[in-house]
Amino acid sequence: MDDPTGEVTDLLQHLIRNACVNDGTDESGGEAKSVDVLTSYLDGSGIDLERYEPLPGRASLVGCIEGSDPGAPTLMLMGHTDVVPVNPERWRHDPFGAEVIDGEVWGRGAIDMLNLTASMAVATRKLADAGYRPDGTLIYLAVADEEALGSHGAGWLTEHERDAVACDYVVTESGGIRIPTPTGTKLPVLICEKGTWWCTLRVRGTAGHASQPLRTDNALVKAAEVVRRIAEYRPETRIHDTWRQFVEGMEFPPEMTEPLLSAEGFWELCETLPMLGLARQAHACTHTTFAPTVIHGGLKTNVIPDRVDLEIDIRTLPAQTGEEVQTMLREALGDLADEVEVLHAADDPATESPADTPLWDTLQRVTDALVPGAKNVPFMTVGATDARFFRRQGTVAYGFGLFSDRLGFDEFSSMFHGDDERVDQESLRLSTELWQATAHDLLGG
Ligand SMILES: [Zn+2]
Question: Can you tell me the mean pLDDT for 285-295?
């Protein structure tokens, strides 16, 4: 296999410089620029290319190497082309400069997830150039709008262009970072993601003159108490299947494993764990979380406010329903529950794929060859990815990738939507080889 490092670095630099920043508005993103780059990169290699653009500028690209056996499985490699906004003042280098410094490519999207979007494209191109004739079909999808709600990207494609993106298996972001343990390196494969239940809570009061505040019904004062109760609420700990499989797969010593698998004392463990990143992760993986994030209210300094709206970011665990969340909210609010109205709840439940699938076996075999001695373990992401659209239509979807040992778990996690995002070139090479080997193993040919 010839070394793909230069090619994948070059493509990643183009994608970073395109700055497809998605701020959640329809006019942002501009992913068509990166679809243009990817189209010219993949064109002429015998890959069938199709472009979809539900709104001007919000383009996605599907590339396909057709399999010879209609009974064989279809694998999709899916990467998004959009990125989240940056505050350039906090960066040590230009976030859209894509400079290579000391073997690392700097820029917004270098980890989330233009690194993988680029390496998937290079792998697909190299397979096609080598005359790859698989039994099963290989699809490459460069998708828009992952960083908002996917409604101009994966959500739109799975709804309106079902046949173009139909597949048995999807691999996308963001697992595979190395976790060293006493029993060897473990690589998390994301098989599950939490759901979101974003809502607005309206707190009402009675308007009046603010020069006489005694015994008034002030919506802002009430809202402050609502925020305090939600922040202090302790939902029950749930040791669900994916968490159990992860902890068991990590092969920690029993004195570590037992507390991580016992609901009793779990909250206290998270509160006292010195590694803050790990504590937050362990807590979020085993609890419904409630984060008050936005407050709107009040009219004028001298008017007692009669209405305050609070936005709460709630993340749900697998199998948890909207009714359950409402019950928890009432429990959190206690005697204030009747004074709070729930508006605009957006229910997007958690999704999961089984861990005992041919794709799982493929990824472990391929990992064995590329990172000798490393073992894959099932894991969940507490954020949301485009995998959810595919899991909901019955596709097995995992988040994976391969990274060098230059990158630690905490550093990796903090670079998602963080400052000074960058990826080393050895990681880019490893991922490119991962995708090629995965296609060969799963699809034959
Ligand atoms: Zn991402």
Answer: 96
How far, in Å, is the centroid of ligand 1 from the Cα of 80?
Answer: 7
Structural contact between residues 124 and 140, judged by C-beta atoms closer than 8 angstroms: yes
Taking the C-alpha atoms of residue 330 and residue 407, their distance in angstroms, rounded to an integer, is 43
202 CA distance to ligand 1 centroid (A)?
32
Side chain identity, residue 238: R
% of the chain beyond a pLDDT of 90: 92
Closest CA to 378 of 348, 406, 398, 408: 398
Sheet holding 104-106, edge to edge: 100-101, 104-106, 422-424
CA gap 125, 84 in Å, rounded:
27
Distance 318 CA to ligand 1 centre (A): 21
- Output 10 or 273, whichever has higher pLDDT: 10
DSSP-derived 3-state class of residue 316: strand
The DSSP annotation for 85-109 comes to ---GGG-SS-TTT--EETTEEESTT
Gap from CA of 113 to ligand 1 centroid (Å): 5
d(CA 444, ligand 1 centre) in Å: 29
Distance 145 CA to ligand 1 centre (A): 10
pLDDT tens readout for residues 35-57: 999 999 999 999 999 999 999 99
Which of the residue ranges 202-211, 270-279, 290-299, 393-402 would you say has the lowest mean pLDDT? 270-279
* Alpha carbon distances (Å) from 119 to 79, 109, 125, 236, 249: 9, 13, 10, 41, 28
Quick one: tokens of 263?
């609901």
Ligand 1 mean position to 46 CA, how many Å? 28
